[in-house]
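Before going further, learn to read the protein records used in this course. A complete example follows; check for yourself that the lines match position by position.
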Amino acid sequence: MAELTLDGVTKWFDDGGDRIVAVDDADVEIEDGEFLVLVGPSGCGKSTTLRMVAGLETVSQGDIRLGDHSITDEPPTTRDIAMVFQSYALYPHMTVRENMSFGLEESTDMPDDEIRSRVAETAEMMGIADLLDRKPRELSGGQQQRVALGRAIVRDPEVFLMDEPLSNLDAKLRAQMRTELQRIQEDLDVTTMYVTHDQTEAMTMGDRIAILDDGRLQQVGTPLECYHEPANQFVAGFIGEPSMNFLDVELAGGSLVGDAFEYPLSEETLADLEGHDSLVVGIRPEDIELDGAADASHSYPTTVDVVEPMGNENNVYLTFDDDASAQTVVVTVSGMRKVDAGQQVAARIPEEAIHVFDRETGRALHNRTLDRAEVTEPNV
């Protein structure tokens, strides 16, 4: 196996004399055996990036390396990369066995006996050994997805590329396949680049995630780093469900001053904001407390506007006054807690949980500190 490196990779398209930049100067290093997830909204350039690595799109500028070897100008057939597509791309006239063995038969000199053995072994791993003589039309969506994955695995490539492979599955099967994909990737220890627009997939599957917006790489880090220490306001708003709350404020007299509240800051937080006055304060829904007294520090009277019961939790939408058109903030509370629309509640916004961004650039000036995970010693 090998590291995969994108060094200043750029892709543009010429449209009637206008240059449209799809991917802009992307720098990513994927370690040997690492599972990296490319995530971002539709049209951000993540699939184009994947296709450049696969050789299906030319690179306008920059370099792609597998280990120490540049593959930028190599054809797809020589890159030792296997790709799994969103549409599965199975040959409808072939059986599962034939679909899985076709790539090996066409691109290698491997003996037929070895191909059959490798296909059977991979089919057993994927739980589709009893489907080898069926054709794709006789399979469910989940079974077709397993065949597509098996076809990639059987090639034993240096790198797996996966382009939203779970998006055609229903929610329950998608969650199941997330777990299976993680297990398979860990067992095979193959460098993997996985593309998705679903931030839940990104958070739960990736060793690291790379977040793109409008063709530009916004942040690369572990899921928890991107969640708790976002590089900018876009990352903070994109990662997390419900999204982070954002409130426009001005820094005046040692406090953040908004339309409906004034938020005094400690000297430590103020030091991070020096030289910046026009700001955005961010707070995640689960960090807002509804138990504080209205006159407590960083606690404000609010009115419940809408309650969304989710079962295990409730999403509560609050306004700082009785005006229904006023800006709302979302709070996540336990599903066992009863909260009603129109109820008056005190919302506390702890300073240790806030994020502050420059309003003009979106850059993070102050983040909450990512606490070290507690390690539980096993009972012997």
Summary: Residues 112 and 276 are 68 Å apart (CA to CA). The mean pLDDT is 90. The chain has two domains: 4-234, 243-366.
